[in-house]
Design a protein that fits this description.
With about 140 residues, this protein is mostly helical. The protein contains 5 helices and 3 strands, in the order E-E-E-H-H-H-H-H. Helix 3 packs across helix 4.
Length: about 140
């Protein structure tokens, strides 16, 4: 499910709360219903939601720092410089992060500059960016 600014007035499950997530059929869900929480119960803290919220903030801040012109402009610049397809640019970043993670996991030394969690978050970020780019190509 994705976040959206749709104007649906009520959750399609509980019909009470204002939806904050929409599925691909544009059905709106409030947070608890989207997470499968029975009506009237408080949602349990979610590590997935925490990770996604942190990743969203990180991507927004990095995009603000790194973009040349538009949201994916630095990836298009790399595409032009390297002479490879735009998808390949994303895959190269993903592959590089996978290599770094493998190196960190296989090392018995303390890490000097980047914790494994940082590399994993970067990997997730590149996957999200590639997915967002694919969505942007569809219109």
């Amino acid at each position: 499910m994705s976040e959206s600014s749709s104007t649906n007035s009520a959750c399609c499950v509980c019909e009470q709360a204002k939806p904050v997530y929409w599925n691909y059929a544009n059905q709106g869900f409030c947070g608890p219903c989207a997470n499968g929480i029975p009506k009237g119960e408080a949602p349990a803290p979610s590590r997935i939601r925490e990770a996604l919220d942190e990743l969203t903030l990180t991507l927004a801040l990095k995009n603000s720092d790194y973009k040349i012109a538009g949201e994916f402009s630095n990836f298009y610049y790399a595409h032009d410089v390297a002479g490879v397809g735009i998808r390949d640019v994303f895959l190269i970043h993903i592959a590089t992060k996978l290599g770094r993670i493998r190196g960190l996991l296989q090392s018995d030394r303390d890490v000097n500059y980047e914790a494994i969690e940082d590399s994993i978050k970067d990997l997730a970020g590149y996957a999200v960016l590639m997915y967002a780019h694919e969505l942007s190509m569809k219109g």
